[in-house]
């Protein structure tokens, strides 16, 4: 994804950035050796006030501030806007978490959110959030404060090359010299962030604002009187859409609808209107309705090329990210596939995927055709049988032998995923690794969407999950549940820190604690470990075992904690309303997970074979 960069030495009447420049030469050309204010001659605070006003005018309503000295003019200007009720400020001491909090705010509100840092390494800590925002097309505005030009390259404290720090991961980057009017840069940056540039999806941008001393307000300045805070409401969650039934003139085809991440309810409506089975990932926000098939990834082989009813075509909405069976289906040369792409997307480069991109639903309908009653029934019957077999396998996972019929069901990953999916209302955030895959496997589709689902699937990393969920909860103004593993939780434990006086979200944090990284045991590494050829290397290097006391960690941050180990305990805990922040720790054992998945596959395979044989 290409980006645009520029400098703004021309002042407020300039036509815009030099999109081809590096962003430094133009700045150097107008700076007097004395270090006196150049160009427009604005003081640091005046320039910051102009920048804040322009940000608000362009739709920014949330700014996450990480403390620092060089960024002080922006911080004071934002404090003035906050007191006037024009912006919501959140303060985070860790820039990495500040970036992901801004990401969550933008995800929940659908509007650009900004993050402010001081100069130096502070800016570099934003890179993981910027990378995720790039690939997920999330509009976040990085405001990086910088030293004035006369201090760059001199060894001045906390001074480095900041403009090109994010490279191709930002849609636009501008360097605004000290003393210059930043309005043009802000306007252009927000246009780029929201996807106003031609053929460019939304995404992150950088405003690198240089400030020269003094960095504090003038003696006569003061905060305006408090005027009451506005509450910025996020858009409503996914609602079912209605399309007219597919035309009888369309040919009958054995087509499946794949709904990947961020597909939206349009995928469900298309599948329903065309009588096609819907195979929807949890973060598609399309996993509901009468055509949705729950454990679809276990059924793809039953509709493969050797089956009685092989898949003929695939239509794809959103980005598929979760399973190898889906990737294998999309890679088949004998199964034509089409991708619904009405607007530019950030997750692939044109020409790099095999699906035919189609820009309107009429063309997609011609490609997909309509499903026969027999085709849809086969999938729905197989899906129901698979879901029943899976539920039985999970209900007996507490023990083996006679105790399995009477003992409490252990809270395994798939069982936790199913219960969290069933009980969550409002907003649901799914961590990468096993959490989202457990929901994809075991979460039964409902008739209507139960919650708006979010996940960092741009790069599918575990970075900043708690901070992202916090931003989503605060931006959405709804009760929010986040499901994540213990390694993901520990990776962002700093995201639990809220300063005194900072708003606390209604956020339930469900941690599946199996004392390490379970996902690698389900991949090829699990077979390597089972073979014993590498001793304990797999456990040490991939399992990363630990003995962290999550209750003590929760207490250190002043967060309520509860531990459960059975599905009954978990269901009871999830049925309670979400008030404030709490940690629900679900303790389980990951070492039998590979065998559990094998039992699930066997049980589902047997049940589905019987159903399809009876057709």
Structural overview:
The chain has 3 domains: 4-210, Thiamin diphosphate (ThDP)-binding fold, Pyr/PP domains (Rossmann fold, 3-Layer(aba) Sandwich), CATH 3.40.50.970; 255-373, 3-Layer(aba) Sandwich (Rossmann fold); 411-588, Rossmann fold, CATH 3.40.50.970. The protein is 35% helix and 14% strand. It has 21 helices and 18 strands. The protein has helices at residues 25-29, 44-57, 72-83, 95-109, 121-124, 127-136, 183-193, 265-274, 324-331, 361-368, 373-395, 413-423, 434-442, 465-476, 486-491, 519-522, 524-531, 537-543, 550-556, 567-574, 593-614; strands at 4-7, 62-65, 88-91, 113-117, 140-146, 172-176, 205-210, 255-259, 278-280, 313-317, 337-340, 356-358, 426-430, 451-454, 480-485, 507-513, 560-564, 581-587. Strand 13 (426-430), helix 13 (434-442) and strand 14 (451-454) form a beta-alpha-beta unit. Helix 2 (44-57) packs across helix 3 (72-83) and helix 4 (95-109) packs parallel to helix 6. The longest helix is centred in the middle third of the chain and has 23 residues, at 373-395.
CATH class of the largest domain: Alpha Beta
Strand adjacency order, main sheet: 1-6-7-5-4-2-3
Number of separate helices: 21
Oligomer: single chain
Count of individual domains = 3
Secondary-structure map with pairings?
Blueprint: E1 4-7, H1 25-29, H2 44-57, E2 62-65, H3 72-83, E3 88-91, H4 95-109, E4 113-117, H5 121-124, H6 127-136, E5 140-146, E6 172-176, H7 183-193, E7 205-210, E8 255-259, H8 265-274, E9 278-280, E10 313-317, H9 324-331, E11 337-340, E12 356-358, H10 361-368, H11 373-395, H12 413-423, E13 426-430, H13 434-442, E14 451-454, H14 465-476, E15 480-485, H15 486-491, E16 507-513, H16 519-522, H17 524-531, H18 537-543, H19 550-556, E17 560-564, H20 567-574, E18 581-587, H21 593-614
Parallel strand pairs: 1-6, 2-3, 2-4, 4-5, 5-7, 6-7, 8-9, 8-10, 10-11, 11-12, 13-14, 13-15, 15-16, 16-18, 17-18
């Amino acid at each position: 994804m290409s980006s645009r960069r520029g400098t703004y030495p021309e002042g407020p009447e300039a036509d815009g950035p030099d999109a081809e420049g590096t962003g430094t030469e133009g700045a150097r050309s107008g700076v007097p050796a004395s270090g006196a204010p150049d160009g427009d001659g604005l003081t640091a605070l005046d320039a910051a006030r102009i920048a804040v006003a322009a940000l608000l005018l362009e739709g920014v309503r949330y700014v996450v501030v990480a403390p620092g000295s060089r960024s002080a003019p922006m911080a004071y200007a934002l404090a003035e806007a906050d007191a006037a009720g024009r912006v919501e400020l959140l303060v985070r001491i860790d820039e990495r978490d500040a970036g992901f909090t801004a990401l969550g705010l933008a995800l929940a509100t659908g509007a650009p959110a900004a993050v402010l840092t001081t100069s130096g390494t502070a800016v570099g800590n934003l890179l993981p959030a910027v990378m995720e925002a790039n690939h997920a097309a999330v509009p976040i505005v990085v405001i990086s404060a910088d030293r004035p030009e006369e201090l760059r390259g001199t060894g001045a404290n906390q001074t480095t090359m900041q403009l090109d720090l994010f490279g191709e991961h930002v849609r636009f980057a501008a360097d605004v010299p000290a003393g210059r009017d930043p309005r043009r840069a802000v306007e252009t940056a927000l246009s780029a962030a929201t996807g106003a540039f031609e053929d460019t999806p939304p995404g992150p941008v950088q405003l690198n604002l240089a400030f020269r001393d003094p960095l504090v307000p003038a003696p006569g300045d003061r905060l305006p009187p408090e005027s009451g805070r506005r509450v910025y409401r996020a858009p409503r969650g996914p609602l079912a859409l209605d399309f007219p039934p597919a035309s009888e003139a369309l040919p009958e085809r054995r087509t499946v609808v794949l709904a990947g991440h961020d597909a939206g309810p349009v995928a469900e409506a298309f599948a329903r209107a065309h009588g096609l089975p819907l195979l929807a990932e949890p973060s598609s926000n399309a996993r509901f309705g009468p055509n949705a098939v729950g454990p679809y990834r276990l059924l793809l082989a039953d509709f493969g090329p050797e089956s009685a009813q092989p898949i003929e075509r695939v239509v794809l909405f959103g980005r598929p990210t979760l399973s190898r069976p889906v990737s294998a289906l999309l890679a088949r040369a004998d199964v034509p596939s089409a991708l619904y792409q009405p607007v530019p997307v950030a997750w692939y480069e044109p020409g790099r995927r095999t699906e035919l991109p189609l820009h309107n639903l009429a063309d997609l309908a011609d490609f997909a055709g309509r499903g026969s009653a027999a085709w849809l029934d086969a999938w729905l019957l197989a899906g129901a049988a698979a879901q029943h077999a899976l539920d039985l396998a999970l209900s007996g996972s507490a023990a083996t032998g006679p105790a399995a019929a009477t003992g409490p069901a252990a809270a395994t990953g798939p069982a936790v995923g199913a219960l969290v999916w069933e009980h969550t209302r409002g907003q649901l955030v799914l961590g990468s690794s096993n959490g989202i895959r457990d929901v994809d496997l075991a979460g039964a589709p409902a008739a209507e969407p139960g919650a708006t689902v979010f996940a960092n699937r741009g790069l599918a990393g575990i970075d900043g999950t708690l901070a992202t969920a916090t931003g989503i909860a605060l931006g959405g103004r709804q009760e929010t549940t986040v499901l994540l593993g213990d390694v993901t939780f520990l990776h962002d434990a700093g995201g639990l820190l809220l300063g005194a006086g900072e708003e606390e979200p209604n956020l339930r944090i469900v941690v599946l604690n199996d004392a390490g990284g379970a996902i690698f045991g389900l991949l090829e590494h699990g077979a390597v470990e089972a073979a014993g050829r590498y001793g304990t290397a797999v456990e040490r290097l991939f399992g990363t075992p630990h003995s962290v006391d999550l209750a003590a960690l929760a207490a250190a941050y002043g967060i309520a904690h509860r531990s459960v180990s059975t599905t009954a305990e978990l269901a009871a805990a999830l049925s309670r309303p979400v008030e404030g922040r709490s940690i629900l720790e679900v303790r389980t054992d990951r070492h039998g997970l590979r065998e559990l998945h094998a039992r699930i596959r066997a049980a589902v395979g047997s049940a589905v074979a019987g159903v399809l044989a009876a057709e």
